[in-house]
Design goal:
- The complex is a heterodimer of chains A (about 260) and B (about 325).
- Chain A is of the alpha/beta class and about 260 residues long.
- Chain A has 2 domains: about 160 residues, 3-Layer(aba) Sandwich (Rossmann fold); about 80 residues, no CATH class.
- Chain A has 9 helices and 10 strands.
- In chain A, the strands form 2 sheets. Chain A has a 6-stranded mixed beta sheet with strand order 6-7-8-3-9-10, with helices on both faces.
- In chain A, a hairpin with a 2-residue loop joins strand 9 and strand 10.
- Chain B has a domain of about 210 residues.
- Chain B has a two-stranded antiparallel ribbon.
- Classes of the chains: A alpha/beta (about 260), B mainly alpha (about 325).
- Chains A and B meet through helix 2 and helix 3 of A and helix 6, helix 7, helix 8 and helix 9 of B.
């Protein structure tokens, strides 16, 4: 088999005495949707932050398409094709939706030391940005300031921003967080389309969504991967059931 | 930025027309004092505009911006004292020295954020202040008198009040125009994006520090130009030009007029210095009136005077 697109080996990150990431190893193949699940505090966001470079691991390595990116700063990883969405929406709040996405496109169009011409009139930035907005269903809201968007729209905008960087791997940190039922359903549908175009690592609490979408699932508990495999394997895994699925699954079923 | 004839735009247009026509008024009325006052105001407005670029648009709260006034001023003063009177040498040196200072200060201070950034910029400016105080060859604490204004080989005569005023006004207009181009450019959007959400900007692939640093240097150079103008205006430079209270004055002008607005700093400089001038004629304790006034504007007029005008025009 070819090299995985994203390979994580024996990653360790401590916060004081707590092992937030405990020798995590993970392979994500090109084109797959790999879900990472686990109870609250299992270290999912910590893991994502190390993948994107916001946090530095204490040991272990991360390879993207065969290149060691363990010590590569966040902004350069983005150039290499890693994009993330944030669990807690993180956008430029005083900018319009289109500005947010256009800046992402700009970040991947060479350096930005242009001081003179009006960047808001550049079609080579605005065009792809608008396309990304339309992709997530926000075409009509392009000129709305982010702080005026609903929570659901902001979640979709997060996705559009990530898409505009033309990533090889999309790291989605709970894209469904705080969404209502209809919004969630829309997001699942959107991810179902996106997965055909880009490799996705999905951290998500919504079990129905995860099992509907994932090719493979890794289960993180107390910073360790306790199981990794196809959804059917994970569903049948006794340890996973004990650690996680039991209570949580019942809860989501009620919804 | 589309031009609409809202009340706030009308006010700006009136202010600009007023500034442009001021020499006409002085020559008709014979009131030279107003021209002298407004030459000073226009120079400080340029300094405030430069500060606004990093503070308002870039979110970098520099509390040492007066240092560039001093550096620009001392470049002119020292060269004049050494017998180099040509503005073609003095002014480029002033700008270059400011750029260099900004580059070093920026490279060191931009590693920090928030209060630490404020403190470090303040510390460097105070360092510049003490260095100037120690320059005994150039007057030390007492400052340095400039006996001849910068000589521009007959192109423009800086000793002529009106010509000098228009030079200052041209520099201010140029500064505002430059800031306008910058904030709408790719570079400007990055800098404003970093102010808004640095983590997000890093995640989409922007290296923060180098953009901030370049912005910091541009701002420093612009303020250095104001310093060169100021030295020529007062025919004198002294360490007091870069004392921390001066930096504070500049910050107040920006906040008063409206942080992150194009014309805000200019309006702020005008209001602040005119008030200072007239209140200080009325009472020795003018700061007692100025202080509460500033408080009111900061507390109730978010976005400064320009912000208030903007809200007024939206109804």
């Amino acid at each position: 088999m070819a090299d995985p697109l994203l390979r994580v080996e024996k990653l360790v990150r401590r916060f004081g005495g707590i092992m937030a990431t405990d020798h995590v190893s993970l392979d994500v193949d090109r084109g797959e949707l790999h879900a990472i699940i686990g109870p609250n505090g299992a270290g999912k966001t910590t893991l994502i932050s190390q993948l994107t470079g916001q946090l530095h691991p204490h040991s272990g390595t991360i390879h993207l398409a065969g290149t060691d990116i363990t010590d590569t700063p966040a902004y350069r990883r983005s150039a290499l094709g890693l994009a993330r969405s944030f669990q807690i929406t993180s956008l430029l709040k005083d900018f319009t939706a289109l500005d947010n996405v256009a800046l992402a496109a700009q970040a991947h169009d060479g350096h930005s030391f242009y001081f003179w011409s009006d960047a808001r009139k550049e079609n080579r930035l605005r065009g792809p940005a608008l396309a990304a907005l339309e992709r997530v269903g926000l075409g009509q809201r392009a000129d709305a300031v982010v702080s005026e968007l609903s929570h659901g729209e902001q979640r979709e905008l997060e996705l559009a921003v990530a898409l505009a960087t033309k990533p090889q791997v999309l790291l989605l940190d709970e894209p469904m967080a705080g969404l209502g039922i209809t919004e969630s359903a829309r997001m699942v549908k959107l991810l179902q389309e996106l997965r055909r175009e880009v490799t996705i690592v999905l951290v998500e609490h919504d079990m129905d969504a995860v099992f509907a979408l994932a090719d493979r699932i890794s289960v993180l508990v107390y910073g360790r991967v306790i199981a990794s495999g196809r959804p059917s394997e994970i569903r049948g895994n006794e340890e996973v059931k004990r650690a996680y699925l039991g209570e949580q699954h019942v809860v989501t079923r009620h919804v | 930025m589309k031009a609409r004839l809202s009340p706030s735009n009308l006010v700006m247009a009136l202010v600009i027309a007023g500034l442009a026509l001021l020499p006409l008024y002085t020559s008709l009325s014979g009131n030279v004092f107003v021209l002298t006052l407004f030459t000073r105001i226009v120079i400080f407005a340029l300094a405030a505009v430069s500060l606004n670029l990093i503070m308002g648009y870039g979110g970098m709260m520099s509390f040492g911006h007066a240092a560039y006034l001093g550096i620009g001023g001392y470049a002119v003063g020292i060269l004049a004292a050494e017998g180099i009177g040509s503005g073609f040498i003095q002014w480029p040196v002033a700008l270059l020295a400011s750029a260099l200072f900004a580059l070093v200060i920026g490279a060191l201070s931009l590693r920090t954020r928030g209060v630490y950034f404020i403190m470090i910029t303040l510390a460097f400016a105070q360092m510049a202040y003490y260095v100037a105080s120690g320059l005994s060859r150039y007057g030390g604490d007492d400052g340095l008198t400039i006996y001849k204004r910068s000589n521009f080989a007959g192109i423009i005569n800086l000793s002529d009040r009106v010509q000098f005023y228009y030079l200052c006004l041209a520099c201010l207009s140029g500064g505002i125009y430059l800031v306008w181009r910058i904030v709408n450019s790719r570079f400007g959007l990055v800098v404003q994006g970093l102010r808004s959400n640095e983590q997000r900007m890093q995640a989409i692939g922007f290296p923060a520090t180098r953009y901030r640093l370049v912005c910091f240097v541009i701002s420093g150079v612009m303020c250095g130009l104001a310093g060169a103008l100021l030295a020529n205006n007062t025919d004198f430079v002294s360490p007091a030009m870069m004392y921390w209270t001066r930096s504070g004055d500049l910050m107040v002008m920006v906040i008063l007029g409206g942080m992150g607005s194009l014309f805000g700093p200019m309006i702020g400089a005008i209001v602040y210095l005119v008030l200072e001038e007239f209140l200080s004629q009325v009472t020795e304790y003018w700061a007692l009136i100025m202080g509460p006034l500033l408080l009111l504007i900061v507390l109730f007029g978010r976005g400064g005077i320009v912000g208030i005008l903007g809200r007024f025009s939206r109804g």
